[in-house]
């Protein structure tokens, strides 16, 4: 289907919706397959219309198409089954189990059996994992969040869930333009033509001559790209263009009854609207890319707050808490990270019972946190000012102040003689300052001749003051005394205006009664205008809301978008539509750090936009479950709504699932102590062997994600997470809670999208192909590059999603490393022995390094020496200049006599903390080299051991070397002489059921805790090891003590 035909389909869908032909629109969506109407699908799920939802879904994907489709069908049928059980419709449940769920039994028979056992229960909540199952509607709402994420990730549905942004009645406008064009070609056009049909071309009486000329034109339609753009390409074209302009400027529109005729006023209005939008886009297009990444521009959360909001404010410390005031008079606190409402209070005032009866018509005008976030104020539309104080984990009303006669229009917090005060203004033309602790009135400021509309606190050289603005635009400045206003000047347009500080500069935004708005910067000393920011609306019905961000940007909600200016430039910098659906004049509010932006949207929603830091914060805060995290049994947790069965992505998920959505405890085995110590003599005299669990502590991290042995393992640079890459290309990410250290008492939790989707690399097509998994983490812990024998994938660790693939094999990547000075540049070791220096953002190769004879197995950058160290399976070590990318020198790792390196044996390199030396790891030996000279200074071989080295790494302080041996033993060596000091038997760091059967594969050291390291295991698990708590560190004796 051609692109234009597809566009036509969308126009017809829009037309059907506008004409209320809903069934026809849905049928067209299904038959064309161009648009998956997510809103309609969600309505079907919420209504429990399971058959219709599956029928609609089946038009786009089948249950066996991919794991995402399987997940969607499974979750729908599972919820259908649970609802039948909850209604005690057991015959229906049996029918669903046999017909609908049977298809999933083959991939997870145990789960199917467990679901069948639910039939024997009188109440499905008797099952531990379903104890929190509520009503059907609550369960469906929770299910929607999971389904939405899986649908967005499904390759078969990507790009189909969003309807193109098309202006209203677009198809009608195109037909109308066509009729206008036909009317232009009439030789004697009537001033008010009437169109009775679209089946034939329009022709005014007496236009036969022109029609004869038209009949001589080619019969094939003229493509848009072929239409002559020059007005003087021919006399005919020029004449037609002028006539077209004349008629469009006088006539052309749509009739109310749906028929089309020429009416100029409507066409002209539409054209003006288009020109306005085009002007905004054109003027900011050139600078749109200048908006830096630190500006919050990506929609990360959408909150459904239930009713219209009037004011909002982010907590100054707890960035995830958003205070919201509503038109209904309610005040709420939302946790934007967890999508949850944490606090809600309706308007109830004892002192106003007689005044306002049932509080009809009382709304919130302003909500505001105090500077330290310990309390917040609420200004109401009828005389009241309320203060709420923090009480343990919630807030309680501290003060009710009858502040003004009429509406309390605004409030602000400030300091008066070192006392925290709350300042209010109202319709009674007064400004009042109240003691925030006692509610006592401290000051009353008089001087405005009209109701006071807004307040803005200021501070200069430890002197606190208040700006006040009346509805007529009069601006006054007050010190905390009773002398009166110090400064008075007027806002442009003499209109309702709000003020704000940013980067110690004063800004205001106001809207006249005629709708024209102003956003200006003030010289507050002289009361003059420094700068007037352009392209604000000229037809606003309400005051445009604005805010400052990062002490650099101004943002205003206007014309259904967010307009952004640099404070130093009056030209519009950029426009953000936040994925559409914003109010005409949306409220906006930045968090204090500038990482989050809240903006009001249609249908009583608030959208939360974030930058990378904000996205990371939301992810971490969302997974910081605290006391709410409960442990479920390993088996029954498979029934959780959050469990991504039946395809192999069974992981731990958080959220509010209805079937035991709490976090699955990662089978933690912590602090196993108390066995008697035994000894085991070794030939090496300088090795103290730990064979007793009491000499070390461990935490075993496992997950329900089906994967095989761990091939690569690393800590995040911040030390708050562990990333593992399994043989099957699956990535696992465990993180400690946001405010917790990487300790054994607080074990990390597996991070996973609530949908259960995993970050997974593509594997080689042929099962016999040997793949070398590799990965590297960016310096800011935000991005991961990884490969498992095919494409190199770039992942966003904040969103846990794949961003793009590059470098299709052959050759395939065998080693990856981010270039520390620039996260856009990576070094790629290839299986054809070359090294590519690659700009992944620009998708271009910078340089190709050749010097090895076999595949590359290790890379390390030294930013202090500006060199790259590489090694390969050929045991050759090469030093490269990281500026010119020229080869400087090379050496060969000497294999001990009697030992032969296999073709698959790898050599890895790792720099010490000073980057002056590096550790070379081979299956037969460990060696330390000088980075600049490649001179070997220390070496340890496995001569006294019967097994080879699996992997080894430096501790973060480079004092120790942790090595994993293939027989399950962990060695701790002193880096000073590279001699083994301690040996940890597998029985000391693994439970008895695994000891002797599971081997260590790879080791990673914590980046900030020298005594902690993690080991990737052959069964797909990860274990974290530390010395026992009583010692606090590994006891390493020197040579003389040994």
TrEMBL record:
Residues 34-92 form the CTLH domain. Keywords: Repeat, WD repeat. Pfam families: LisH_TPL, TPR1-like_2nd, WD40, zf_topless. The keyword Repeat applies. WD repeats lie at residues 401-444, 536-575, 849-881. It comes from the Eukaryota. This is CTLH domain-containing protein. It comes from Salvia divinorum (Maria pastora).
């Amino acid at each position: 289907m051609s692109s234009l035909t597809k566009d036509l389909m969308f126009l017809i869908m829009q037309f059907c919706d506008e004409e209320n032909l809903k069934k026809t629109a849905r049928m067209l969506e299904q038959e064309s397959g161009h648009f998956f109407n997510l809103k309609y699908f969600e309505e079907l799920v919420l209504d429990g219309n399971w058959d219709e939802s599956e029928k609609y879904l089946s038009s786009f994907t089948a249950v066996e198409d991919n794991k995402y489709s399987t997940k969607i069908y499974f979750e729908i049928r599972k919820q259908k089954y649970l609802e039948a059980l909850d209604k005690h419709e057991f015959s229906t449940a049996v029918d669903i189990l046999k017909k609908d769920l049977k298809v999933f039994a083959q991939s997870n028979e145990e789960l199917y059996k467990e679901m069948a056992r639910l039939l024997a229960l009188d109440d499905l909540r008797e099952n531990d994992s379903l104890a929190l199952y509520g009503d059907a509607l609550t369960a469906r709402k929770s299910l929607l969040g999971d389904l939405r994420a899986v649908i967005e990730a499904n390759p078969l549905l990507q790009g189909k869930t969003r309807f193109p942004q098309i202006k209203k009645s677009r198809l009608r406008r195109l037909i109308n333009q066509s009729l206008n064009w036909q009317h232009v070609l009439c030789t004697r056009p009537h001033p008010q033509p009437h169109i009775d049909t679209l089946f034939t071309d329009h022709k005014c009486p007496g236009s036969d001559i022109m029609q004869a000329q038209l009949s001589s034109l080619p019969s094939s339609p003229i493509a848009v790209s072929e239409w002559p753009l020059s007005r003087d390409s021919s006399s005919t074209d020029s004449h037609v263009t002028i006539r077209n302009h004349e008629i469009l400027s006088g006539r052309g529109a749509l009739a109310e009854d749906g028929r089309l005729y020429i009416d100029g006023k409507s066409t002209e209005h539409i054209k003006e609207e288009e020109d306005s939008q085009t002007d905004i886009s054109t003027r900011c297009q050139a600078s749109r890319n200048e908006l830096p990444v630190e500006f919050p521009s990506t929609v990360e959360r959408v909150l459904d707050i239930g009713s219209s909001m009037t004011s909002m404010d982010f907590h100054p410390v707890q960035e995830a808490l958003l205070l919201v005031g509503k038109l209904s008079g309610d005040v709420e606190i939302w946790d934007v990270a967890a999508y949850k409402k944490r606090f809600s209070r309706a308007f109830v005032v004892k002192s106003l019972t007689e005044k306002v009866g049932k509080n009809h018509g009382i709304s919130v005008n302003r909500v505001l946190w105090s500077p330290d976030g310990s309390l917040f104020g609420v200004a109401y539309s009828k005389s009241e000012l309320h203060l709420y104080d923090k009480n343990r984990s919630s807030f309680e009303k501290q003060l009710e102040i009858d502040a003004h006669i009429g509406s309390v229009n605004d409030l602000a917090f400030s300091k008066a003689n070192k006392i925290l005060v709350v300042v209010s203004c109202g319709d009674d033309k007064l400004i009042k300052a109240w003691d925030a602790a006692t509610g006592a009135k401290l000051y009353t400021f008089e001087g405005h001749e009209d109701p006071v509309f807004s307040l803005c606190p200021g501070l200069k050289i430890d002197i606190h003051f208040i700006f006040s603005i009346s509805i007529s635009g009069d601006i006054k400045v007050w010190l905390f005394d009773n002398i009166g206003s110090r400064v008075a000047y007027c806002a442009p347009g003499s209109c309702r205006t709000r003020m704000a500080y940013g980067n110690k500069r004063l800004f205001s935004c106001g809207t006249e009664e005629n709708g024209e708005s102003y956003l200006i910067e003030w010289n507050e000393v002289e009361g003059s205008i420094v700068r007037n920011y352009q392209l604000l609306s000229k037809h606003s019905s309400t005051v445009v809301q604005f805010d400052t961000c990062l002490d650099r940007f101004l943002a205003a909600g206007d014309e259904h978008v967010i307009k952004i200016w640099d404070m130093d430039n009056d030209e519009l910098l950029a426009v953000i539509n936040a994925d559409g659906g914003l109010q005409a004049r949306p409220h906006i509010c930045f968090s204090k750090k500038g990482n989050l932006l809240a903006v009001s949207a249609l249908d009583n929603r608030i959208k939360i936009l974030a930058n990378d830091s904000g996205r990371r914060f939301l992810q971490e805060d969302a997974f910081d479950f605290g006391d709410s995290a409960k442990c479920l049994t390993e088996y029954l947790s498979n029934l959780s709504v959050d469990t991504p069965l039946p395809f192999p992505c069974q992981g731990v998920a958080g959220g509010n699932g209805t079937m035991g959505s709490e976090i699955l405890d990662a089978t933690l085995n912590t602090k196993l102590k108390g066995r008697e110590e035994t000894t085991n003599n070794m030939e090496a005299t300088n090795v103290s062997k730990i064979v007793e669990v009491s000499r070390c502590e461990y935490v075993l991290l496992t997950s329900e994600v089906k994967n095989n042995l761990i091939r690569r393992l690393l800590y995040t640079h911040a030390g708050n997470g562990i990333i593992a890459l399994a043989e099957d290309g699956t990535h696992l990410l465990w993180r400690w809670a946001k405010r917790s250290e990487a300790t054994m008492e607080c074990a990390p939790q597996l991070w996973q999208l609530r949908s259960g989707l995993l970050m997974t690399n593509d594997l080689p097509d042929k099962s016999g192909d040997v793949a070398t998994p590799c990965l590297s983490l960016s310096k800011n812990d935000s991005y991961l590059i990884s490969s498992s024998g095919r494409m190199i994938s770039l992942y966003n660790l904040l969103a846990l999603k794949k961003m793009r693939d590059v470098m299709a094999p052959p050759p395939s990547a065998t080693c990856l490393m981010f270039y520390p000075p620039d996260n856009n540049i990576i070094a790629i070791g290839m299986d054809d022995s070359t090294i590519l220096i690659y700009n992944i953002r620009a998708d271009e190769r910078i340089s190709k390094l050749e010097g090895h004879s076999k595949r590359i197995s290790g890379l390390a950058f030294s930013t202090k020496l500006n060199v790259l160290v590489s090694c390969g399976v050929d045991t050759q070590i090469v030093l490269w200049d990281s500026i010119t990318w020229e080869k400087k020198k090379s050496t060969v790792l000497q294999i001990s006599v009697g030992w032969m390196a296999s073709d698959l044996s790898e050599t890895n390199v790792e720099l010490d903390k000073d980057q002056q030396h590096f550790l070379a790891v081979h299956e037969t030996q460990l060696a330390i080299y000088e980075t600049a000279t490649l001179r070997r200074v220390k070496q340890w071989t496995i001569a006294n051991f019967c097994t080879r080295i699996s992997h080894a790494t430096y501790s973060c302080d480079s004092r120790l070397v942790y090595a994993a041996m293939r027989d399950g033993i962990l060695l701790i060596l002193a880096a000073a002489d590279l001699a083994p000091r301690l040996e940890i038997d597998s029985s000391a760091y693994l439970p008895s059921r695994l000891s002797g059967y599971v081997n260590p594969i790879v080791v990673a050291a914590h980046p900030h805790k020298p005594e902690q390291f993690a080991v990737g295991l052959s069964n797909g698990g990860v274990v974290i090891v530390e010395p026992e708590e009583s010692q606090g560190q590994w006891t390493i004796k020197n040579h003389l003590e040994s």
